[in-house]
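Section 3.1 - Work completed
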Amino acid sequence: MTDIDDFERARPQLFSVAYRMLGSATEAEDVVQDAWLRFSAAQPSDLRSPRAYLTTIATRLALDRLKSARATREQYVGPWLPEPVLTGGPPGPEQSAVLAESLTLAFMVLLDTLSPEERAVFLLREVFEHSYAEIASMLESSESNCRQLFHRAKERLAAGRPRSGRSREERRRLAERFASAMRAGDEAELTRVLADDVGFWGDGGGRVIAAKRPVFGREAVVNFILGIRRTAPSAGIDLEKVTVDIVDVNYEPAMVARVDGRIDSVYVFSMDDNGITGLRVVRNPDKLVFIARQLEEAGRGRDSHGSRDLLM
């Protein structure tokens, strides 16, 4: 087997690790490419496990990027949200619920509250099921320190982990009801589909108009959504030219809104038995490039490379 064969077999996991570490599919692709360059240039001749070696490279590269990104995110205009990615439905039977949950935007926002080292250890242990010995080797740390980092991360994440008893079909129908109500400006229906304690986060990154602060509570969120619809014409948006589609994004139902065929925003829904509990709306154009490419490829009848990678 050649070096490139080893790399292609490992590519899905490399992308999966990097995306969960960084919250950016675009940067994850860069990490994977950098990992290949380092692997092809410096592969030891006696290497036993190319996959483990590549995972170590990708993890360290992502960790370095995350440390640098944290300072930038502190200066980010408005709420920072992960870059949305198209997923092809529920994970297969060979994949764990933990793997799917770790991709939801709600959970990835929680991951961003951890230190870079806590995040790396938690993902490698909880999601990718590496041993503490393997993680310690990857991070050039001790097993005892990795255990401490893992337990600290797990405790910090436990209270905020999303829970929903709704089936995939029920969640999709609820998303469709929201989309119809928003298009029609139906205040009563919006009130019915939103949970009492719903939250709304908008990520424009200072590039486009978006809420600079989160909005909480059903009445406040309904009013905000109706305000978006009411002010659209003054922002140069012809509502008759707006189209919406319901798709799976990060294993959650989402509404993709297009204006004149161009993706304007992606609404990702978190839900529980009381209705929609969270609306995370990505409008930053830089964060829509990857999913736009995925949707274009899906429209041509091909699975997106990124979507396949994230199912690992």
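Second construct:
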Amino acid sequence: MIFAIITLLSPLYLSQTAKASPFFSNGYFTPNGIEWCEENLPLYKILGEKFFEHHNHSLESRICVSLYDDYYWSYEGPDRVEKLIERSKYYSQLEISESYEESLTGIIDTNPAENKDQTLLQGITKDGETIVQIISSTPKKNQTLEINLVFLDKYNKLKPNVDYSINVTQQGQKILENNNIYSEKGLSTLITRPLNSEEPVSIKVLINQIGIENSSSIGSNQEILEFTVVPEFGVMTIILFGIAISMLILLNAKNKLFLFKLK
């Protein structure tokens, strides 16, 4: 029903999703689409916002710009293209959602509906041999949290065959726990249950073993790395900001009173 409404009420959506292309099919980019984005990056750097006008505000151009700002655009892993294709699916869904909202208001925004709530966190094991990166969405009430884990060596190359556990909590409540995860390529994507609030989320990653058993490359120390995903403007941030303003007002009032007494 939603898609029918979009098709009827949003000309932008209709004009850009009616046909598949060599670059875009089944709701996301093909490898040719990622290559098209790479070829158009210099043009975007020159034209800026006029880049969309140059491409007639196409869906492809808006998704490209979203990808340019995505963490995986500068990612150097062997599966970079696959990761970008997967991210293009996400940005495509954002565009569809925005088109639906625009169909209700009649106000069309041709800029990309890019995701601005990604958090990149990084931890290093004590021996400096393993880097764990987490790319997470921002905690939002009643929404799941997407957690992407990347295991790298000290040269920033993917570490394959990682056996690890993960524990994710919010305000002391468990929202995800898995004690037996195996990442063949050193990459994992996990989804939590819907969050109860926008409070910070604590993530503990326990590395059990790296490498294939009976191999000389095996490594294990069962080391725990801890991360905290904090909302851009969480409750504590607002409270601390309010306290800081109150203190400034109080100090300002005291200074005025002191100067008044001197007179």
